[in-house]
Amino acid sequence: MNRKAKIVATIGPASQDEAVLEQLIRAGMNVARMNFSHGTHEQHATRIATIRRIAEKLGVAVGILQDLQGPKIRVGDLPAPLQLSEGEAVTLYATGSTPPASEGKQIPVDFRQLFDSVRTSDRLLLDDGRLALEVVSVKEQTLSARVVVGGPLTSHKGINLPGVRLRIAGFTEKDEADLAFGISQNVDAVAISFVRTADDVKKVRYAMERFSSGKRLPLLIAKLEKPEAMDNLDAILDIVDGVMVARGDLGVELPPERVPALQKHIIRAANQRAKLVITATQMLESMISNPLPTRAEASDVANAIFDGTDAVMLSAESASGKYPVEAVQMMDRIVREAESHFWEWGKEQAAIEGLESNDAASMARAAQALANDKNVTAVACFTTQGQTAWLMSKIRPRVPIMAFTPDPQTFRRLAFMWGVGPQQVPFANSLEEMLEHVDSALMRSDVVHSGDQVVLVCGFPVGAVRPPNMALLHTVGSDVTMQMSREALDAMTRGQKKDK
Fold first, then answer.
1. CA 274 to CA 267: how far, in whole Å?
2. Which residues fall within 8 angstroms of residue 245, CB to CB, at 6 or more apart?
3. Whose CA, among 56, 103, 195, 361, lies 20 to 30 Å from 35?
4. CA dihedral in degrees (323, 329, 335, 338; nearest 10)?
5. Domain assignment of residue 165, yes or no
6. Alpha helix locations (H) across 273-407?
7. Are 341 and 391 found together in one domain?
8. Is residue 354 part of a domain?
């Protein structure tokens, strides 16, 4: 069985070696996430080049997702881990300033605006909420706090301020420099952190357009990890290509019990808008240090599949954990097993909003009906920009989607799409030439065999950048004119010339 949901794996110190990267791709990694909260441009450039070289050698599509840091508040460099005890007093100060002369433990913070935003009695959550502090007093570039929930604290752990509205821009100078670098590397998608409103997204899209110099833009994905984003979800969905359910920060900013229902709400809303949706954070968390996940984690991954997510993501499991390859292999196994039971427990895809009069969507629905009603093995899309495959993916046919494209950028972008098996083929100038390419690739695949029927969806005339306007049945291995008469092909060609 071919897996339909895609696996996003974060690349870091545990997975950046060429041998490990090849194992990750062979294990099922579809998208490599570059976390720009860590690492230099040189390190990321090396990782991107290595991944693309391996993917080309293996003949597979692997997308590159650039994840911008955003206004992330982190603990600075600690000379040694701190053990914080409940009730003790601690002092936080801005990195780069002189540590205050005070008793108790001192914690540097890599974020000066923190001290302008918090007030007495505000609560600070550290290390994904594992530790909690209460603000006692605030002075210029320092604050005193009391430990409410103690535990070990190490360098560079995140700090969350639930309920506090930070007086900062969501798109920082560092993000802007990182984005310019990502565009120069032709990343396939950009994820923006701590989105609150649609305006946060617009700023990044404008910057992408400025840096791209007319080139095709990467996919733009909003990470949903702030309560304000949930209040503005519809407006955000209007202008992004996809969203990420970033459950770690979302579960710190909001009560944890709210996260499961919010996850379902986000996935359903994204699917109804034909937007990509990635479910992320702590999916196989225990595999950072253990070779097997907990049963609860396996259920968590499976339930995201039943909810209808397009992709599931590994973070520290593959970036810094002891078992990066095993984590991808385990994710692959859980997803495949869940998908084998999807029609028992999963949610049927609802109608896509706003596409009722869209010709491309109508053609995709016609292909879905053919695939579901006939003895069809797969849907085959010939696509230049990926839009045909995207629509087929969101409509969720019950058979695999084989997407054929001559464009390398589209080939990598297809790696993000649920149910889509990307295939790169030579450029075609005619319907007959396209059919030859598609038929040859289908015969080489492990999805269909000679004599199987597929539904082909494409735009006519072939080679033009246009929405799909043709869906028809083809028997694999038969004459490449697909049982269409020469008169029919000529009539289509004459009709196209007349339209011109």
1. 10
2. 224, 262, 263, 266, 267, 277, 278, 279, 280, 309
3. 56
4. -100
5. no
6. 295-307, 316-319, 324-340, 342-345, 359-373, 387-395
7. no
8. no
CA dist., res. 59 & res. 53, Å (int): 10
Domain boundary among 345, 378, 410: 345
Integer-rounded Cα radius of gyration of the chain = 25
Cβ neighbours of 377 (radius 10 Å) = 20
Q: Is residue 351 one of the residues assigned to a domain?
A: no
**Residue-wise burial string across 2-40, b where 16 or more C-beta atoms lie within 10 A, e elsewhere:** ebbbbbbbbbbebbbeeeebbbbbebbbbbbbbbbeebe
Number of domains in the chain: 3
Residue 161: CA atoms inside 13 Å, Cβ hemisphere, count?
A: 21
Q: pLDDT tens digits for the chain (500 residues)?
A: 589 999 999 999 999 999 999 999 999 999 999 999 889 999 999 999 999 999 999 999 999 999 999 888 889 999 999 999 999 999 999 988 888 877 689 999 988 888 888 999 999 999 988 999 999 999 888 999 999 999 999 998 989 888 777 767 678 899 999 999 999 999 999 999 989 999 999 999 999 999 998 889 999 999 998 889 999 999 999 999 999 999 988 888 888 899 999 999 999 999 999 999 999 999 999 999 999 999 999 999 999 999 999 999 999 999 999 999 999 999 999 999 999 998 888 877 666 776 655 667 777 777 788 777 778 888 988 888 888 899 889 988 888 899 999 999 999 999 999 999 999 988 877 777 777 877 888 888 888 888 888 888 876 666 556 566 677 787 887 765 444 434 444 444 444 444 44
Supply angle C-alpha 102, 106, 107, rounded to 5: 145
Domain of 53 in residue numbering reads as 6-70+171-345
CATH number of the domain at 100, please: 2.40.33.10
Q: What is the CATH number of the domain that holds 477?
A: 3.40.1380.20
Taking the CA atoms of 250, 251, 255 and 260 in sequence, report the sign of the dihedral they define: positive
Kindly list the catalytic residues: 33, 74, 223, 281
